[in-house]
Every structure is written in C-alpha cells, then in structure tokens.
UniProtKB/TrEMBL annotation, chains A, B:
<protein>
    <submittedName>
        <fullName>Ornithine cyclodeaminase</fullName>
    </submittedName>
</protein>
<dbReference type="InterPro" id="IPR023401">
    <property type="entry name" value="ODC_N"/>
</dbReference>
<dbReference type="Pfam" id="PF02423">
    <property type="entry name" value="OCD_Mu_crystall"/>
</dbReference>
<dbReference type="InterPro" id="IPR003462">
    <property type="entry name" value="ODC_Mu_crystall"/>
</dbReference>
<dbReference type="InterPro" id="IPR036291">
    <property type="entry name" value="NAD(P)-bd_dom_sf"/>
</dbReference>
Length: 354, 354
C-alpha cells in the first residue's frame, strides 16, 4: 500500500495517554487550568454556536452528541449515560470527543473523554462555586461517591480552598473507595453513614448520583440558609436529585437554559421560573451570590462548551509530549477529486508488492 | 502502565484498511451488498429514530453530525462539506462514523467514512434508480466528475445494468480523471464537451456537483419525458443543481422530507409541494414510476440511515479479516465507579516500572 500523507492523520489521545498527560501535568494543576479555560470560554459565551445536545433515549439509557463551535474551532462529544451499566461492570458514562478546523472541516484531534469529562465536570463545578459559594467555605458534603466524586473533591480543593470533604453514598463500598482514593491528597476526609451526617457543617453540598429517575437525595429540611448546592447528578429528562421545595427557596444558576429546562433540576418547575445564566455572572451582567443567607444552586447538566474548552486544553498541552497516536482517518488522495483513483493505486501498489 | 482490558478497545477501520476491505471483497460486490443493506433498512424505516442532521454552518462550509438508531444499534457520522477545500488540495467531503450498542452505550466500531460515504451514496442512488428509472435504462449522463463520479457509475452498472456512462464536468481535467479511472471497468465511457452532449440518449441523468450556491446544472429544455434524474449534489441550504421548472414537471422522491425540504432541490418549492418517501415505494405503500413518459427525480441529500447501514455492513464484514486496529478509547477500571483509582494505579505502576 502507498503511505498516507501527513494530512491523512488525526492525533488520537487514548485513555492511557490521557492518564499519562494528567499525571505529567499534575491532577490539581489540570483541574485549575481547565477551570480557567472554561471560565474564559463562558466569558465569550455569546460567540458560540449553541444547541441543546442531540439525545437518543432508550429504556436503559441515553446516547448523546454535544456539538459547539466558536467560529474557528468546532468540537463535539459523544457520551452515553447508562445507570444499569455498573451492574455489568461497565462505566455509567463513557465518552470521546473531537476537535475540527471550521475553515476546512478537517479533524484536529480525537480524544478519549471519559476521564476528561470527569475532569471538566469537576472543574466547572468548582469554577461556578468560586462565584456562588459563601465566602470562606471550607467544608463540602459529597452525596454520591461514584466515578466523579474524587475529581469533584480535588477541584474544590484546588480552586475554592476546600479543606474537608464529608462523603456519603447509599452503597458504603462507594464511600470506602472514595475515602481510600482521597487519602493523602491533602483533604480531611470524613466518611458518613447518612446524608444528614454528611451535610453537618458543610457550606457546600454536592449531589452526584446516577439513578435515571426522579429521586430525592436532599429533602427540604436538610438545606439550611447560606448553603451552596452543586447539583451534578440530575442531567437528563426524568432524572432529578433535589426536592422541589429546595428549588423554590434557591437562587438558581444554570449553563444553557434551553437544555437545563429539559434535563436539570428545574424540569420540576414552571418553564418560566427565573434562572440566571452562569456566564452572565462571570461577565458582570448578572449578580451571583448577594448575601450570606441566600441558598445558591448550580443546576449543572454539563454543556458542550465545557467539553470544547477541555478538548482545546488537551490539544494545547499535547505538543511535545508524544502522548498521542496518529490515526489514518482522512482519505487524502493527491488530487482531492480522485478518491476512486486512490483505491485503484492502492490495488496496483499491493499487487506490485505481492 | 497497566494494560487496558478487552472492554476498553474499539475496533478502528482506517482509510488504508477500508481500501483493503473494498479490494478484498471487490468494489462492485461491495456496492451491491451495500445497496441490499440500505434497501433492507429502508424497508423497516418507521422503526428508526430519525432526526434531521445537526449542522454547523460557516461562510466556507458545513460540519454535520448525522445520528440514528434502530433501537439495538446506534450510529452516527461526522461529515464536512467545504467546496473551497479542493483549491487547497483537500477533500470537499471527509467523514468518519461510529457504531454503538444501545444497551450499554459502548462504541462497537469507529471507521473512516470518506470512502464509505462515496460507496453508500452511490449504492443508495442505484438502489433508488432500480425502483424509479425507466425499464431497460442502460445509458447514464454523469454531470459533475468529482470524487463521487466513478462510484456512481459502477453502482449503476452493478445494480441497474448500466452499460454506457457519458461524462461531463466544467473542468475537463475532472472528466479525464473519471474516464481514466473507469477504463477497463466494463462500461462504455464517453467524455463529453457539454452537459447537452452528455444527456444525449441517456435515460438516467446524475448530477453530482459541489458548488455551495444555487446553480443550474440542468435547464428545463434539457430534460425530456421518461428520464430519471438522480440529483446528488444539492445537499445543503442554498445549494441546488436543477432549474425549478424541472421540479414542477417531475415526480419527486426523497429520503426524509424534514431534511430534504431544507437541503434538497425541493428547497426551491413550496413547503407543502407533494413528494413521495422512497421507503414507502420499497414497502409498497406508495407508487414508484407509473409510466414510461413520467420524469422521476430522486432528490437525494443523504440520510443518516444510509450511513448506519454502511457502518453495519462494514462491521459485519470485518470479522476474520484483521483489517482494523484496536483503539484504547474507553476507560475501563476494574470497579466501574473507580475512575480516579485507575489513574492512581497507573501512577503507581509507572513509578514501579521506573
């Protein structure tokens, strides 16, 4: 066969190379730099091509495509959500993504995004809390100790100065796992036997559970004044974590309203219930936390721009590391109109070689 | 680093391996088998999750995602359309696609689709002509001799019994290229100096040009009664190839009306102008060609189900060939909730190794 030309190749970041890259840079540094990238992209929010994710639902889960573009670079993520996967020993959420050049439509990078999604979700949560959590918050309750928990804890440590994380999960094995992984990471880790115990003394409450159903992880009486709630787990139609009464007492901040109204906690509210877009807090067009008694809720569902920021960050950090493989993904005949001739020449080359 | 488990791997079909697979099976056999797969999927059309493609337009082109699912398997294609790429020596259209398991959301196969799109477009065109072209049609005019031309000609030969193809392109070099590639493939190939010359004696007219603008490749007086028009090039908003008067005289057949109304030739017509869905002709719910004098038009824009059929076909033909690489694309910790622990263990393994 003839060798593919340079244009034919797309750098691919495998799971192993993503882990190497994260370890090479340092996980807290990655989270901090990612949060800065995401914040910078939120600050130029109006510039992006935005669309709610394109979801394909089945009885057991959902497969989604999340595209966006800033006019120069295009990105999309493929991501699934299958709560029942865990029972089969599979990931609830797996993902990969792609960056492409808007001017040519040619892919720039393909990357695993299962690890990267956990990182970007945590970085987004902590970035939002920086704007919304009460001053001097140092203790966080973490309800739901699955795949995302440790990433969330470390992001809040690196970005918001968190010192103590209080862990609770309906499955004690998940809490043990998270406590074990977080040992020696510079946080006081307190495993708890109930959600009530976990929220004791916490100024920030993160909910990150995976059931695809209406659930009440937090009831109204559990949430006192002044708290910041980081609601991560409610992220598709029919999947919520908070009692409706909590929402009615909270100032609600969201990523992209048309998507959050369908997928977030606010699917429980009237379609015109007032919410604030986080990007407007960052640009100063809207107010964040007003006072110490206010309950703030970041109703996070995950938006395409966060994935875009994460992919661009990885792409920018890749140069010189060698932490990628070249994939022969783009057909690149010498004459672009001669796709068929490329096959004919491949045949000729292969019979010459034989 | 620890070795990724079997679940972590996704088979990837590179451009080189796609060419090898096509040559291994034989290109006309691939086109015939592909047309049968596409026809079988059109016959179970109502079963599919259908959505118009998700397009991101810029001044110079478009990047699109085309997802669909039959409830068991999910597929999507990434495809760009950049007419100006050719001047830079790049492909106008490049593509790749993915199959996934609906039950778990896990990817089953990643594949190049630049070559595969040319194959599936040609197979779809010829499959439609089998239902719509006049009986005994053996001569086709091929207007636009770019990357798709030879695939179209061979599909019509293999599936519809085409014997003669008459080539015309505004760029004589494109016609020379197509004529050279088609020499010795069992067709009478007639290079022509004008579109008028190309359509002489042709019962089938294929238009496959790439300008992103309203163009008139065929004027009204060029199209006589009884002809079948296979309109392939008009496939995005603002891009058409046929004069409106031709459409008014034709029986129009389309893939998926909500998409074709936006992207096809019929964007020139009233939104309620009657069209027939091709799948209904295949299932016998609608009439195809009624008589020998009727002008039939397949206003083809390319639909996600065709890509789905093509990906499934490649996937089914891959076993035992070795014509793929395993990509480490899915993070697969031993405990699915322990994504963070996987990174910690990778670090430990790497420091032990060092």
């Amino acid at each position: 066969m003839l060798k593919p030309s340079k244009t034919a190749f797309v750098p691919f970041v495998s799971v192993e190379n993503m882990m190497r890259l994260v370890l090479h840079i340092g996980i807290e540094k990655v989270l901090t730099e990612l949060a800065a990238e995401i914040e910078a992209d939120f600050a130029r929010w109006p510039l992006f091509d935005k669309t709610p994710r394109v979801a394909s639902h089945s009885d057991v889960g959902v497969i989604e495509l999340m595209p966006t573009s800033d006019g120069e670079t295009y990105g999309f993520k493929y991501v699934n959500g299958h709560p029942s996967n865990m029972k089969r020993g599979l990931q609830t959420v797996t993902a990969f993504g792609l960056l492409a050049d808007v001017a040519t439509g040619y892919p720039l990078m393909l990357s695993e995004m299962t690890i990267l999604t956990a990182l970007r979700t945590a970085a987004t949560s902590a970035m939002a809390a920086k704007w919304l959590a009460p001053k001097g918050a140092t203790t966080m309750a973490m309800i739901g100790n699955g795949a995302q928990a440790e990433f969330q804890a470390l992001a809040f440590k690196a970005i918001c100065g968190l010192r103590e994380v209080r862990l609770y999960d309906i499955d004690p094995a998940a809490t043990e796992k998270a406590a074990r992984n977080l040992a020696g990471q510079g946080l006081t880790v307190v495993p708890c036997k109930s959600a009530e115990e976990a929220i004791m003394g916490a100024q920030i409450i993160t909910t990150c559970t995976a059931d695809k159903q209406y659930a009440t992880i937090l009831t109204d009486n559990m949430v006192g004044s002044g708290v910041h709630i980081n609601g991560v787990g409610g992220d598709c139609p029919g999947k919520t974590e908070l009692h409706r009464d909590i929402l009615l007492r909270s100032s609600i901040f969201v990523e992209y309203p048309p998507q959050t109204r369908i997928e977030g906690e606010i699917q429980q509210l009237d379609p015109d219930h007032p919410v604030t877009e986080l990007w407007q807090v960052i640009t100063g067009q809207a107010e964040g936390r007003r006072d110490a008694r206010q309950i703030t809720l970041f109703d996070s569902v995950g938006f395409a721009i966060e994935d875009f920021s994460a992919l661009r960050y990885v792409h920018s950090r890749l140069k010189g590391t060698g932490l990628y493989q070249d994939l022969d993904m783009i057909a690149d005949p010498d004459d672009p109109r001669d796709l068929f001739g490329m096959i004919l020449r491949a045949e000729a080359a292969s019979s010459t070689a034989a």
